[in-house]
Amino acid sequence: MDVYESNAWLDWWANPITCLASFEVMLVIRSEGRTWEAQAQLVRLDEPALDAFELLNSDPIFDLRLPDGATLSVEVHTTDETGKLQLTMR
C-alpha cells in the first residue's frame, strides 16, 4: 500500500474568479492497486472555521490544491465533528 501525506488546501469557489473560502488540511491518500482512499483533517479546528465549513456542506465541491500547485476537483463530506473529512474525486 502506498501512502501520500501532505498539507493541502480545500478551496471553495463561487465562480471561476471568486474563491469564497480556503481551508488548510492535512491530507492522507492511501492507494492499493487501482483503488485509493483520501481523507483530510482540518488544520484549524476553532469554532469559526468549523462553522464556516459546515455552511459549505450544502455544496460540497471543492478544489483540492496541493503544495506543487496541482488541483483536483473533489467532493468533501465531514465524517464527524472533529474536522475529519472524506474526499472523493469528481
Describe the structure.
This protein is mainly beta and 90 residues long. The chain is built from 1 helix and 6 strands, in the order βββαβββ. Strands 1-2-3-6-5-4 form a 6-stranded antiparallel β-barrel. Strand 1 and strand 2 form a beta hairpin. The longest helix has 9 residues, at 47-55.
Question: Layout of SSEs?
Answer:
Layout: E1 2-15, E2 18-32, E3 35-42, H1 47-55, E4 61-65, E5 71-78, E6 84-89
Antiparallel strand pairs: 1-2, 1-4, 2-3, 3-6, 4-5, 5-6
Short description:
The protein is built from one helix and six strands, in the order βββαβββ. It is mainly beta and 90 residues long.
Name a few traits of the molecule:
90 residues; 10% helix; 62% strand; 1 helix; mainly beta; six-stranded antiparallel β-barrel
The radius of gyration is 13 Å
Number of strands: 6
Order of helices and strands: EEEHEEE
How far the N terminus sits from the C terminus, by CA atoms, comes to: 23 Å
Specify the biggest β-sheet.
6 strands, antiparallel, barrel
Structural class: mainly beta
Parts with pLDDT < 50 across at least 5 consecutive residues: none
Q: What is the helix fraction of residues, given as a range? A: 10-25%
Mean pLDDT: 85
Tell me, briefly, the overall form: globular
What is the percentage of strand-forming residues? Answer: over 45%
Physical arrangement of strands within the biggest beta sheet: 1-2-3-6-5-4
Number of helices: 1
